[in-house]
Amino acid sequence: MAHSKRILMVEDTASVATLYCSYLLPLAFDIEVAKDGGAALIALKKEPFDMVLLDLRLPDMTGMQILNWIQRECAHIPVIVMTAHGSIDVAVEAMREGAQDFLIKPCEANILRATVGRVFRQQQTVLASGEHNVEAPSPDAEHELGDFYGFIGQSPAMASVYEVIRSAAKSRATVFVTGESGTGKELCAEAIHQASDRNQGPFVAINCAAIPNSLIESELFGHVKGAFTGAASERKGAAELAHGGTLFLDEIGEMELDLQTKLLRFIQTGLVQKVGSSEQTQVDVRFVCATNRDPWLMVQAGQFREDLYYRLQVIPLSLPALRERGEDVMRIADILLAQICVEEGKQFASFSSQAQQQLKQYQWPGNVRQLQNVIRNIVVLNDGEIVTAEMLPQAVMAQAHPSLNAHQGLADGAHLTVKQGAQGETISHHCEIEPLWITEKRTIEAAIAICDGNIPQAAGRLEVSPSTLYRKLQSWQAQSGE
């Protein structure tokens, strides 16, 4: 069995090093970071490495000096140099001096992973035999241990999502994605597209809730010149633009019933008829749809066509809420912190233990999107190397509470103190008392999380009917405006 490939990353900015390590984490490399040239030389002399990612600008010496030392002492180690925009000439010079490739900073995850993989494959070809043979990462390696086509997380709930995406990607069957706002439904649709054999074709997304009802048909199917006021020229719709690829219809539940009828016909026949035209065009698209509401409850309420529901609900995929993903919260927070620090030019590298506790205890009603906004708020408004609990927005500090488990009826810290008044009457002092429906909501959500999202199982544990839980969940979604 091949050893875990070891990479030395020579980078003096802690936030950048943290970000790039997170990008490479799914490839299962053993990565060591050296903060300057001296530390890099010590590491190279002490232990063998399979690759060096080398920043050309270091505080104590130049990256070229490190590169020249590697070429003299251990030339078999491939080097990828990293440089900022405007220094490409230096990177080209480094290539002449023996570097295998270069990256322009800041670089995105897919570019970094692709470059590292390409250099390893080149090295494998050169060293096809001998003890320094380097095994290249498998094509799916970047999706095996955590990051999955943009998703971050290793929780059991997300592992189930990844498995459904892998299976669904091989088929042309329609996928119906459900989940709360901010859970990543569009990202899920893109993952299905990228994992499929249609990944070289277009991915077209249309948000049915963001387009006025009078324009959705035109956005979806296109229109001819003069079809309506303002139609100054012929225009292709999303369906035609997605030909050969994937069409993602987000918030499909917001589509009016008459347009649902036309969509059903399009899905059945593959024929597109532009607004104002009598001609039809055959297109080849794969459908992925999404909603943050329960589609079957919408059918029962007369808001969604039952025949369209059955046509779309071939492969249902439910995305878990962030509060149901355990340690994924901090994994996502760490990567967002590194990424946003690079964008904002800040030096934060980690969270204090108290800040981590608060982030993990908070319920995240806005899910990953809300977490991203909170991290950006912290980075923009504060300075330092460690995010402390005091830097968290007040809403997170005020509402964070320990997660429930099977032995906790109420959140820790919610209590009532009682004392005798002057006339002997009992006086109760409020201390984090919440409305009963919030306590009930938290208990139900905790039960569903414990049952890995299985609502009927959670209902059994709570000794209520599944329909009761579905009704309450729908009611809470309506209250939150999702």
From TrEMBL:
Please list the residue ranges annotated as the Sigma-54 factor interaction domain.
Answer: 151-380
- Pfam families the record matches: AAA_lid_14, HTH_8, Response_reg, Sigma54_activat
**Does the record bear Transcription in its keywords?**
yes
Residue limits of the Response regulatory domain? Answer: 6-120
Keywords for the protein's UniProt record, in alphabetical order: ATP-binding, DNA-binding, Nucleotide-binding, Phosphoprotein, Transcription, Transcription regulation
Q: Which SUPFAM superfamilies match?
A: CheY-like (SSF52172), Homeodomain-like (SSF46689), P-loop containing nucleoside triphosphate hydrolases (SSF52540)
Give the sites modified to 4-aspartylphosphate. D55
Q: What is this protein called?
A: Regulatory protein LuxO
- The gene is luxO_1
